[in-house]
Inverse folding.
């Protein structure tokens, strides 16, 4: 029987010929990413609960401080110090203030065919390069860090055949929100989401990262895309080579197959308080906003900043709105600086900030107050996600977020 | 077979990790410190009312969202004996098992229980409520072993002859 990409990666990591959904296998993990959201807990367990603590292979670890950067309180400063000191002591690859973990992983570490654990739910982003990225908690992380291994239940795969091309003014963000709306917030729970088809070749790496990144919002264990020339040239530009390029077999079994015609996608908004609560963006038009956020591992790349800058050039941020622009990494930041995009945002009255998770995770920069409304390119719109428990988050594309920042109310770019 | 009775608290679908423990409280030093804020965006009074041995009943996709392990930890710290939900988000599922928190998947009791009811759980067999039994499927042996040991780290210590 044929296998899917997810099954092939697990089979390779388990060192067996074939696997099938429902099997549980012990697997070798290729890389393990952890950030300042939970690494301090992993370190505490490592130091306090193990008799003979050791790291199986330090070269597999990448630690990234991105959630509260720079530290915003003595508590987070202490948590960062713990992480920094441990990383130095053990020689762990370490980034601080360089950008959001998943963007840094894509720019510097992820290779096709790898099995990667990340102590962060959006680790499924790595599927944009054909890697099996999956989110774990700190206990699973610790176990993999100490043994080099873990166990995985082989997931069923949902296949999405993409056809056609996105219309002008419609983005990958609208596409993935549409798909999540279609299958629901647990539509892919315990499953892998695989994307392929002729439509995939029309999507940039930035588009692909944005799509795979958000698949956890449909409950997916991982997201995987076929590795093509677009992915290979991204990899080559950064001096990396694939570990292995896997393709689903012709007779692979998918739990369900969907054909998505990209030309039918429209600008979408996910309303509070669930990512699958999606509507045509125009239905939300006129909803007053207090803050707009352009950034995050989902939508803070150069392509997104270009979209926003092109719209806001020569215009102004609405006087009653704070518009936060946060590049996803310093690589993105520097490119945006060279292209003059950041100057455009600042001239329009936006607040340009350092590369970090920012208000997307609702702990430090730009949190919103009671009764306030945020429109965001971030990952989630759960109740209280961006600040006060009684506040409202709408998710949309870079274009819709920027248009809304200008209008002071939810608006699509064609309404400017 | 292990059997226990507890008072039920009822929650809905898609109880996400930001509801279970909001981001702003993750910087608190211990899970004990986080306890008063559990479920606060949805029901600020709930954490103060939960007693040791109580049972949470919820709908589909419980624990969706972040990989923060403080979510199952804080539920366990509140004294919740087990969760009965229609389904769980997968990262939460692993994290709960790894912390020794019992999860039961069942989609019938939601229709019959009300908050404050008493139910009896016979692990890997059935949930009893008002004289009626609702069968539950068994968790795989290795996962039951992890829960019984009190979590993954403790299970590994046991396996390695350390405890």
């Amino acid at each position: 029987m044929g296998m899917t990409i997810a099954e092939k990666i697990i089979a390779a990591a388990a060192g067996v010929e074939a696997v099938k959904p429902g099997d549980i296998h012990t697997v070798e993990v290729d890389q393990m990413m952890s950030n300042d959201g939970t690494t301090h807990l992993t370190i505490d367990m490592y130091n306090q609960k193990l008799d003979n603590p050791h790291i199986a292979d330090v070269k597999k670890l990448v630690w990234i401080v991105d959630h509260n950067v720079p530290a915003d309180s003595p508590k987070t400063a202490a948590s960062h110090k713990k992480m920094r000191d441990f990383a130095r002591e053990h020689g762990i690859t370490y980034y601080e203030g360089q950008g959001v973990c998943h963007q840094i992983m894509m720019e510097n570490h992820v290779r096709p065919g790898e099995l990667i654990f990340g102590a962060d739910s959006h680790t499924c982003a790595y599927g944009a390069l054909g890697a099996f990225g999956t989110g774990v908690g700190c206990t699973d992380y610790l176990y993999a860090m100490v043994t080099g291994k873990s166990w995985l239940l082989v997931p069923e795969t949902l296949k999405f055949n993409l056809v056609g091309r996105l219309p002008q003014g419609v983005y990958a963000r609208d596409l993935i929100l549409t798909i999540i709306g279609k299958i629901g917030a647990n539509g892919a729970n315990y499953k892998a989401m695989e994307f392929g088809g002729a439509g995939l070749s029309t999507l940039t790496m930035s588009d692909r990262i944005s799509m795979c990144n958000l698949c956890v919002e449909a409950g997916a264990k991982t997201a995987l895309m076929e590795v093509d020339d677009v992915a290979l040239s991204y990899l080559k530009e950064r001096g990396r080579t694939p570990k292995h390029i896997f393709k689903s077999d012709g007779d692979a079994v998918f739990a369900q197959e969907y054909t998505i015609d990209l030309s039918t996608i429209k600008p979408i908004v996910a309303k509070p308080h669930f990512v699958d609560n999606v509507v045509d963006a125009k239905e939300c038009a006129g909803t007053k906003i207090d803050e707009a956020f352009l950034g995050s591992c989902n939508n803070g790349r150069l392509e997104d900043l270009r979209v926003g800058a092109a719209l806001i050039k020569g215009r102004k941020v609405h006087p009653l709105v704070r518009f936060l622009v946060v590049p996803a990494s310093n690589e993105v930041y520097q490119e945006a600086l060279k292209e003059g995009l950041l100057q455009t945002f600042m001239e329009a009255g936006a607040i340009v900030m350092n590369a970090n998770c920012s208000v997307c995770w609702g702990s430090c920069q730009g949190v919103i107050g009671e009764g306030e409304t945020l429109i965001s390119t971030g990952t989630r719109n759960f109740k209280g996600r961006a600040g006060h428990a009684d506040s409202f988050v709408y998710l949309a594309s870079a274009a819709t977020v920027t248009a809304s920042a200008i209008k002071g109310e939810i608006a699509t770019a064609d309404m400017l | 077979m292990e059997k226990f009775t507890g008072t039920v608290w009822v929650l809905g679908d898609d109880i996400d990790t930001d509801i279970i423990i909001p981001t702003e409280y993750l910087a608190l030093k211990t899970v004990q410190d986080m306890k008063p804020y559990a479920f606060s965006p949805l029901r600020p009074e709930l954490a103060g009312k939960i007693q040791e041995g109580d049972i949470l009943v919820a709908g589909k996709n419980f624990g969706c969202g972040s990989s923060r392990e403080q979510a199952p930890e804080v539920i366990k710290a509140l004294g919740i004996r087990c969760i009965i939900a229609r389904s769980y988000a997968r990262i939460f599922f692993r994290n709960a098992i790894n912390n020794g928190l019992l999860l039961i998947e069942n989609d019938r009791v939601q229709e019959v229980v009300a908050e404050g009811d008493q139910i009896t759980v016979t692990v890997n067999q059935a949930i009893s409520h008002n004289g009626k039994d609702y069968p539950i499927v068994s968790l795989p042996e290795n996962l039951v072993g992890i829960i019984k040991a009190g979590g993954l780290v403790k299970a590994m210590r046991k396996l390695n002859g350390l405890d």
User: Anything to note?
Assistant: The radius of gyration of chain B is 15 Å.
